[in-house]
Amino acid sequence: MIALKHIKKCLSVISIPPELDLETQLNFCTDTRKYHHPSFFVAIPGSKTNPLDVITHLLTEKCPLIVYQQDADNQIKVNKLKSQFPATSFLPVKDSVSFLQELSHQHIQSWKKLSDKNTVFAISGSNGKTTHKEMLSHILKSIKPHKIVATEKNNNNHLGVPLTLLQVNDQTEMVVLELGSNHPGEIKVLCDIAAPNAGLTTNIGATHLEFFGTEEKVFDEEGYLYHAVREVTHDKGFYLINHDDQFLKRLAPFKGSITYGESSGVQAKITYLEDGAQIHFQDHSLVATNSHITGRHNKLNLITCAFIAHHFYPDCREIIVAAAAEFRPTKNRSEWIEFDNRPIYLDAYNANPSSMKAALEGFKESVQEQGFSLDEACVVLGDMNELGEASAHYHQDVGSFIQALGFRHAYFVGRFHNDYLKGFPGGFGRISASEFKPEYRSDILKKYRIHFIKGSRSLQLESLFDIT
Description:
The chain is an alpha/beta fold and 468 residues long. The chain is 37% helix and 20% strand. The protein has helices at 4-10, 56-60, 72-84, 96-112, 129-143, 160-165, 186-194, 209-212, 215-222, 224-233, 296-312, 317-326, 353-369, 391-405, 417-423, 433-447, and strands spanning 2-3, 25-26, 28-29, 40-42, 65-69, 89-93, 119-124, 148-150, 174-178, 198-201, 238-242, 257-261, 268-273, 276-281, 284-289, 335-339, 342-347, 377-382, 410-413, 428-430, 450-454. It starts with a strand and ends in a 14-residue tail after the last strand.
């Protein structure tokens, strides 16, 4: 929600309907299905639908402002709508997306000038962006419940980032912003909009190789955040450099940066505990524990987020530690569920080679910690998408990795199941979750005492449990 007066500061041409005062709290909306009065609506042309054709219910609710892309056809539509719905103002713009991005940029720049402490903390990287965002925002909101704005769900693209920034108001102290990319140049676009003055690139892995080609180019893309923070802050911005990552450790330290990891010579040294991790920086140490997360990768995520929160709010150590322990994974993402009296690790949101391997290692730890043998465990893997020409190689490699870990029972779902089987010949392959579900529910689920389910979003593996 953003006060109307903030929009007036950035865009003086808006004609304010008389029933709205400047303190009115507004949302910006780009989806007619999600409209709630009194939001402003930005009509972004789709490939098949002109949003001006489906906004009658918005106008009936007296939507204060419709921003639309000006052309001859749209102007005819708007002239008719104006006569029918005089309570709504219509603002023509050259390009609706550019309008939203520029408005959010102007707004966040004005907000940062209000206080030197106002921070846009951006997160990029191949894996763990959303987990970092969820953990960090959870901890920060425990400290400042009404002063933190964070990316909702995974609204991390050229529209989601501006919409997040437009939620910032005078009371906000920090924005936790997730930056997503699957094509070269997208992180730069998002950084140009958000002008981040702090941040973190989590890691570099084999993601979206269909569009990037190599991990080196993934590094160029995801690592752009480092350059953006340096430029925006003149080398003074807080930025964490992961020295355990073979690519990120190349980034040169600067005045505001801190190197971290298990590697020797880092400024912030991490050690792992049975149920969490500890970080030692200068003469201080911080411990974060949590019984609801799995694997070293999530322990790393948690201690990193606790360290970030402590950097900005050093007097709130006890709140930070307590909040870290209370964090719960979000739905369908690295969460433990119980189904048919079986513990099940479910991550049906995303998958790539590095995230798959990290999750499998964490699952193996949990199997042993819960007193099961690997012979009692079942691994179900779905496709890893957008890997390009190397897809077959990466799926076979993960199959081999499962075998090396010592798992004996594996099922592969999707169009790459035969490639998984080349690495794990003793497994079974199925073409889709819908084909696999009857067999899984009637036999496989009951046969094994603990289960691992992970695959790319397109597989919808949560449907195995009737979760939507």
